[in-house]
Amino acid sequence: MSEEPDLNAQMEEKSRLKKAKISRLREINGKMSQLQQELLSALPAQERSGPNPRKIQESMDKLEFYIATSAYTPAQEKDLIRKVDALKKELKAATKDNEGWEKARKVRAELRDMRDERRAIRKELDALSAELDSLYQKIIAQGTQEVHKRREGEARREQGRTMAHKRERIRKEKELYRKEMEPYMKEVDPFVSLEDIAEVKKKK
Fold first, then answer.
1. Residue 50 three-state SS
2. pTM (2 decimals)?
3. DSSP state letters, 28-40
4. pLDDT digits (tens, 9 = 90+) for 156-181
5. In terms of Cα–Cα distance, which of 164, 158, 202, 163 is closest to 183?
6. Rounded (5°) CA angle 125-39-114
7. Are 80 and 72 in contact (CB under 8 A)?
8. Which of 38, 105, 150, 173 is the 20 to 30 A CA-CA neighbour of 165?
9. pLDDT less than 70: residues of the chain
């Protein structure tokens, strides 16, 4: 019984925390939907329909690395340089809207942070749900024990009341019998029972 208030307090605290986590999760989901719309509007048309600048840059970096570190014939090297120049032009065209790319980069970073937070909150909610279930089971078990104890106590009290009532009834019967026999007690013959004396007196 002494632990039950603590369990109830823990239950209330965990429930409050779970409610706050769910509220925050809803906020994140709403904000992520908004950011996804912002990302679509911020991205230049090239990102949605044309080459990806990041991939172009990666290809260009690889070619420049090969040119700097490997041995090629003059014709091969010239061909690689032409490819690098073509990629530079393609990259310049793909990144024409620098402001849009910068905004998109920031939105992506914010979305990534929110996904991480959402993932962490979901794990915390799973843990809180397990803790709440455990606390609930403990409270139910304690309540069941208390019910049994109360019933046992009530049964003992009822038994005590029954015994007390029985003793009182016997006492009253004895008292009534004593009062009935009291008038005859002065004439008691040691060889005659009280019942016989009472019977004789009644006949007079």
1. coil
2. 0.43
3. HHHHHHHHHHHHH
4. 777 777 777 777 888 777 777 777 66
5. 202
6. 20
7. yes
8. 150
9. 1-5, 42-52, 94, 96-101, 145, 147-148, 180-204
